[in-house]
Write a structure and sequence with these properties.
With 618 residues, the protein is an alpha/beta fold. It is built from 21 helices and 10 strands. It is elongated and about 120 Å long.
Length: 618
């Protein structure tokens, strides 16, 4: 019971949030959506005109039916003029037919163009959101779950898309039907008119209240569906681990638990909808019964005709659905405001890393990389992960970074291509501050081979040439040869046209890493970074890669992060990091002679069977 009350409180808070969003800040959001839709004035104009026409034709139907009933009644009471009246009845019937056909045609135009406007808006938003996600910094993606972004890109964009059809167009339609319909009813016979409209306030209030409650529960349901999608995404991404540890039943229980939570809320939504519909139907039929009672008395006293009573009853039937849609209109406004705010919050995010005003392309002359008193902390944190880092690397030099986990090695190399911006100090290439050159030119000259060897579901050739799609075949092959991948690829039935599976699952870990190395070599950057990118490669293959890359490395700065010290021995300078500081620097032989932290690590790896001293922090 306490959980039920807690859930009720959460939904009440969500209800309050929805209302405030719709009528407060949400107004600006809705106006922004309206402006987005008005970018297509031709389709909007046709849609609104078709809506007016369809509503007007629909309002003609009750009058025509009432007139037809009076004509049919007159035939019974006036046999002498039956032929003339029958011709008039046929004329009324044909008019009713053409009005109905016309209403159907204009309703078709309304639906088609309202959907057209919505889908054009969704197309533009989808591109804008996707482009924004490409531009946002690593710090944004570090804290956001990909499942949340996918939900935003599907459900929230769909909520904005539907606002034109279910909000703007529906508002015009309901204004004409309810406003003009109410005027026609009251002007015809005010007592019956008021009685015919007596169900409207109750139905409008009940529908609006229910739709807002449904909206609040929908927000919670969306959160639960997001959790469910995260569980599924994680399971599919780690399906090999699940199978390896025979954890299928555990994963099923976990997925079933999240599914049951979503199902419970879905049942609650059905209960709300059924209860609301029953109450609205009951009020409508009570009002219709009262109209029949009073209208029958008036017909008996000759105050109105049977056709007029038919007209009132038909008007009530016509108005029943539009009045119910008032709730859907309120829901559409709330949904558009909520989805729009979430979406526009993403689109309006200030880019943490972007080209500065007046940024110029990076030009390479000497190819010298320089760190000057660089400190860095991740956005939203208070602890520096790098502190006062300074070193210089010239063309042809290899810099090795070593140190315990969490010492800041990967953070350091991620600052060079500006995946993050430094907190203090400067990083320069040939005297040009990397923060003051264009990102595109910088990232063309700085290639980072990541620890995560991500591959796309396409051919091996396209994966290697991803950074330079115009690279010729020989350049791609030379890059693969340097990465010790060429012989493997030419042995495949499809060669370089072989499709690799999702995330490269058809390749081994070492082959994936070699492919990502080849991808970076194609760029021929001025600075090449290997961020523990040979961890899955055997020592012999790694040695061949190092030998093959000597000529390649002579033309650029190479930075290597590796845990196998055999990979670092040939480096011109080795930097030992601990807690964000450079605690030792020098060549392999110099550091061994110093007998410090590096020597302790070397002894641990080379002579593990001896009692080599352990490194502090390892």
């Amino acid at each position: 019971m306490s959980s039920d009350r807690a859930g009720a409180r959460r939904r009440a808070n969500a209800f309050s949030h929805v209302a405030k969003a719709s009528w407060g800040k949400g107004v600006g959001t809705l106006w922004r959506i309206v402006r987005l839709n008005l970018r297509h004035p031709f389709q909007v104009a046709i849609c609104i005109a078709a809506t007016f026409t369809a509503a007007t034709l629909q309002l003609m139907v009750p009058r025509l039916l009432g007139h037809a009933v009076d004509q049919a009644h007159n035939i019974l009471g006036n046999s002498a003029a039956a032929g003339t009246i029958e011709q008039g009845l046929w004329s009324t019937a044909m008019t009713l037919l053409f009005v109905s056909i016309g209403r159907g045609i204009f309703t078709l135009l309304q639906n088609y163009y309202s959907e057209s406007v919505g889908h054009h808006a969704a197309y533009e938003l989808r591109l804008a959101a996707y482009e924004k996600l490409q531009q946002l910094s690593f710090s944004f993606h570090d804290r956001m779950h990909s499942g949340d972004l996918i939900t935003l890109g599907i459900l929230d964009i769909d909520g904005v898309r539907m606002f034109f059809a279910t909000g703007m167009v529906r508002f015009v339609l309901l204004t004409v039907l309810i406003g003009v319909g109410a005027y026609l009813l009251i002007s015809t016979e005010w007592q019956l008119g008021l009685l015919s409209l007596s169900f409207v306030p109750f139905v409008a209030w009940t529908s609006s209240k229910t739709q807002l409650k449904l909206r609040a529960t929908w927000l919670e349901l969306q959160e639960r569906l997001t959790v469910m999608s995260r569980v599924m995404e994680e399971n599919l991404g780690g399906i090999r681990v699940v199978r390896a540890f025979a954890a299928q039943q555990h994963e099923m229980r976990k997925f079933e638990a999240t599914s049951e939570q979503a199902l419970e809320l879905a049942h609650e939504r059905v209960h709300l909808r059924v209860k609301s519909t029953s109450a609205m139907n009951f009020s409508f039929f009570i009002a219709m019964g009262l109209v029949l009672w009073l209208g029958g008395i008036k017909v008996a006293h000759g105050e109105i005709s049977i056709g007029t009573l038919t007209q009132f009853l038909t008007f009530m039937t016509v108005l029943q659905m539009p009045v119910r849609q008032l709730g859907l209109l309120v829901n559409s406004i709330a949904r558009g405001a909520t989805c729009g705010m979430r979406l526009f919050n993403l689109l309006d995010l200030e880019l943490a890393v972007q080209d500065r005003p007046g940024a110029k392309p990076l030009t390479i002359s000497e190819g010298t990389l320089k760190f000057e008193h660089v400190s860095f902390r991740y956005p939203g944190t208070t602890r520096d992960v790098l502190k006062d880092i300074s070193f210089t690397a010239r063309r042809g030099e290899t810099i090795a970074l070593v140190g315990p986990p969490g010492s800041g090695k990967s953070s350091l190399v991620h600052l060079i291509p500006r995946y993050y911006d430094v907190s203090s100090g400067t990083i320069s290439i040939d005297g040009q501050n990397v923060a003051e050159v264009t990102l595109d030119s910088l990232r063309q000259e700085v290639a980072v081979v990541q620890q995560d060897s991500f591959l796309f579901t396409t051919t091996i050739e396209n994966n290697i040439a991803y950074g330079n799609p115009w690279a010729n075949e020989r350049r791609i092959e030379r890059a693969a040869e340097s990465a010790q991948l060429h012989n493997y690829v030419v042995g495949l039935p499809g060669g370089y046209d072989t499709i690799v599976g999702e995330r490269g699952v058809s390749l081994s870990g070492g082959q994936r890493q070699r492919l990502t190395i080849a991808r970076s070599l194609v760029l021929k950057p001025a600075v090449l970074v290997f961020d523990d990118s040979t961890a899955a490669i055997d020592a012999a293959t790694e040695q061949r890669i190092r030998l093959a890359m000597r000529k390649f490395a002579s033309e650029r700065v190479t930075i290597i992060i590796a845990h196998r010290l055999s990979s670092l021995m040939q480096a011109d300078q080795i930097l030992f990091l601990d807690d964000g500081h450079i605690v030792e620097r020098g060549s392999h032989l110099e550091l061994l002679a110093r007998g410090g932290r590096y020597k302790a690590l070397y002894d641990l790896q080379v002579r593990p069977e001896t009692d080599a001293p352990l490194m502090a922090g390892e």
